[in-house]
Amino acid sequence: MARFLWGSGTSAFQTEGAWDQEGKGTSVWDHYTHSAVSGNSATETANVASDSYTHWEEDVKALELLGVRSYSFSLSWPRLFPDGNARSEPNTAAVEHYSRLIERLLQKKIEPIVTLHHWDLPQVLQERYGGWKNNTLVGLFEEYAAFCFHTFGSRVRYWLTMHNPYLVAVHGYGTGVHAPGEAGGPSGSLIVAHNLIRAHAKAWHTYNAHYRPTQKGKVSIVLGSHWVEPQRGQATAANVALCQQSIEAVLGWFANPIFGDGDYPVSLKIKHGALLPTFSAEEKLWVRKTADFFALSFGPNNLRLGRNLVQYGQTVTPDLRRILSWIKLEYGDPRVLVAEGGWFSEASVLQGERRTGEEKNMTIKFDGVQVFGYSAWSLVDGFEWNYGYTVRRGLFYIDFSQPNRTRTPKTSAQYYQRVVADNGFLSDETFREVKGRFPCDFHWGIADSTLQVRRQEDDFAAENAK
């Protein structure tokens, strides 16, 4: 029986830094954070960030300390190809950097899980073609993917084509909150999503036809989601149906073409009408089943977005177990990798990881979901997109005011270390007996782990008031 892939992860833009060093080109996120296009978003840049390009060996040591069996990281497209064109000569320094990282991971018996594209599109492709709005990028991405498969594939068993394309489509080209900062509304998001799905499928087919026979790896795409359910006492059939539509509007938008029937959910067709691009009959057959396992992102970004998608009387909740069960029922019981799991904190301690072991155990044992890996996000504190450095998600704390960017394990890292060592079963939990009394005015209470949802029109008004 294969060992469960406990792991942790990072993305290139959030942690690498060295934004203009050793031949790296500009990404859309470099341009976005350096220009006025970001508006009221984060004023910080990721010029140095966690400086993982320089301190990659310390990241590997952090992984060793955790005792994890996998490391999920992304390749920087503009670092490998500053002009975005994989038919040109690659940046040798970048190829050597990623080769060294992969080799060191394998030496330490840590499985590399490599993402081809985690949002940092080469800026030149945005300027020349309009980025992901242009279907030319489908072919360009396929060529970039083929280069990566050819160059690193003999040492990589797990590939992820792109990370959470929903946020790229909605925030990058719909609301403009993410790079490249285009507020094209639903029509822009729908076109971008269509091209992202087709780019993923094309890369998968390339691997399947030309690299799988010898490399014997697996390829998927990381899809993000929230979980929504009726509030207590409001579980009517109509409300349940609306919850289903809410999940389809996020996860189903990308998962149904790839893991379902090759087409968009009916609820999206009804909602968007003629704005929604269409797959031909041939394309439906070509797109469906272009993933060797289901990779899920379940973090705060999707949960925040989920709040604006639900109706009154519903609740968005960070319940990983339920979304995994939904995936099992909806898409035929696929093998699942939780490619991003975790929460954020404004302090030095990451909250929300203490349920990791028991939640995976219940999901696998009682729900029968075929979860084969979990990546605690993230390994180190980094640049959190439009939130800059105001929130932290790392298991290891980084003082961004210090030039050496020392990695310091948080209490969550120590806890996760024990989860990994016990394979999710914390058998050695010990509690010291403490006696005493609380003050008379101590406020006892109870809390719920759900995010209560206001009326949709109130959320819309609040968003537009910012």
Oligomer: single chain
Q: Helical percent range?
A: 40-55%
How are strands sequenced across the largest beta sheet?
Answer: 1-2-3-4-5-7-9-10
When the domains are counted, the total is 1
Q: DSSP helix count?
A: 18
Number of strands: 13
CATH topology descriptor: TIM Barrel
Top-tier CATH class: Alpha Beta
Can you put this structure into words, describing what you see?
The protein is built from 18 helices and 13 strands. Helix 15 (320-330) runs parallel beside helix 16 (356-365). 48% of the residues are buried. The N and C termini lie far apart (52 Å). The strands form three sheets. An eight-stranded parallel barrel has the order 1-2-3-4-5-7-9-10, surrounded by eight helices. Strands 6-8-13 form a three-stranded antiparallel β-sheet, covered by helices on one side. The protein has a two-stranded antiparallel sheet with strand order 11-12. It is globular. The chain has a single domain (5-422), classed as Glycosidases (TIM Barrel), CATH 3.20.20.80. 41% of the residues lie in helices and 14% in strands. With 466 residues, the chain is an alpha/beta fold.
A few lines on this structure:
The chain has helices at 12-15, 28-34, 56-66, 77-80, 92-107, 123-129, 136-152, 165-175, 185-210, 212-215, 237-259, 266-272, 281-287, 300-306, 320-330, 356-365, 411-421, 456-465; strands spanning 5-9, 70-74, 111-117, 158-163, 218-224, 228-230, 294-298, 314-316, 335-341, 370-377, 396-398, 407-409, 451-452.
